[in-house]
Amino acid sequence: MGTVVDAQNMKYGRKVIVVFVLGGPGSGKGTQCANIVQHFGYTHLSAGDLLRAEIKSGSENGTMIQSMIKEGKIVPSEITVKLLQQAMQESGNDKFLIDGFPRNEENRETFESVTGIAPEFVLFFDCPEEEMEKRLLSRKQGREDDNMETIRKRFKVYMESSLPVVEYYSSKGNVRKIDAVKQVDAVFEDVKAIFNSTIEKVAPYEDFPTSLNTKMP
Ligand SMILES: Nc1ncnc2c1ncn2[C@@H]1O[C@H](COP(=O)(O)OP(=O)(O)O)[C@@H](O)[C@H]1O
Ligand SMILES: Nc1ccn([C@@H]2O[C@H](COP(=O)(O)OP(=O)(O)O)[C@@H](O)[C@H]2O)c(=O)n1
Ligand SMILES: [Mg+2]
């Protein structure tokens, strides 16, 4: 029998592992998530990417989401949690990196109450604002929010609304903090050490390639 946490995290007939990946805009969340996927077999779900896909799909909420992103505001949790839940269900995987979420208390509470899932831990990329600003201004992904005016607003929202979420998990001893100002490879060395020591004691992804796309009975 599982522990209380196991029972809470039982979803779709299997135990679900969620790692929240947090850090300021431009701290390197997406970059490191791509590396973690390769090495540890997680499914990467970026809340921002899901919201941008929702805009592109022409959904009824698209216009509202687009204007909120342009203003650096946090989209109502009801929308974001629904998109995350759908993506988790469709993935067929049971290990998720949830990137850029929860970004405020409302995100955190809604996810917790709707899914009943508690994160295994929070991976927190700690990076000075001037480095994040430099990275965002040279990120060439054609994003409407990577301009100085919106970046300032995003930094303000990050300080006022997102950092308190990190503090919440920190007070529960559930945050793994990474020095994100280093080069990509050096950051990944630190990330790997965390995943190797925290979760992957059992076996690395490469040893069980067939287990990933099958739903457990
Ligand atoms: N450690 C790093 N050093 C320098 N540039 C980085 C580093 N990590 C990511 N980048 C670059 O900075 C930009 C923002 O990275 P990204 O992973 O998109 O951050 P986030 O998802 O946190 O906003 C991208 O252009 C990326 O290539
Ligand atoms: N949980 C979330 C995540 C992102 N977003 C919106 O999407 C924008 C971009 O988020 P992102 O995670 O892709 O941005 P980065 O931190 O990767 O630069 C945010 O500034 C918010 O406007 C949101 O409303 N709620
Ligand atoms: Mg990102």
Structure description:
It contains 9 helices and 7 strands, in the order H-E-E-E-H-E-H-H-H-E-H-E-H-H-E-H. By secondary structure, it is an alpha/beta fold. It has a single domain, classed as P-loop containing nucleotide triphosphate hydrolases (Rossmann fold). The protein has a 5-stranded parallel sheet, with helices on both faces. Strands 1-2 form a two-stranded antiparallel sheet. A hairpin with a 2-residue loop joins strand 1 and strand 2. Mean pLDDT is 90; it is low at 1-6 and 200-217. It binds adenosine-5'-diphosphate (ADP), cytidine-5'-diphosphate and magnesium ion. Magnesium ion (MG) binds next to helix 2.
What topology does this entry show?
Blueprint: H1 4-8, E1 10-11, E2 14-15, E3 17-23, H2 29-40, E4 43-46, H3 47-56, H4 62-70, H5 77-91, E5 95-99, H6 105-115, E6 121-126, H7 129-138, H8 148-171, E7 175-179, H9 184-198
Parallel strand pairs: 3-5, 3-6, 4-5, 6-7
Antiparallel strand pairs: 1-2
The structure holds adenosine-5'-diphosphate (ADP), cytidine-5'-diphosphate (CDP) and magnesium ion (MG).
Residues 23, 25-31, 135, 139, 183-184, 187 line the site of adenosine-5'-diphosphate.
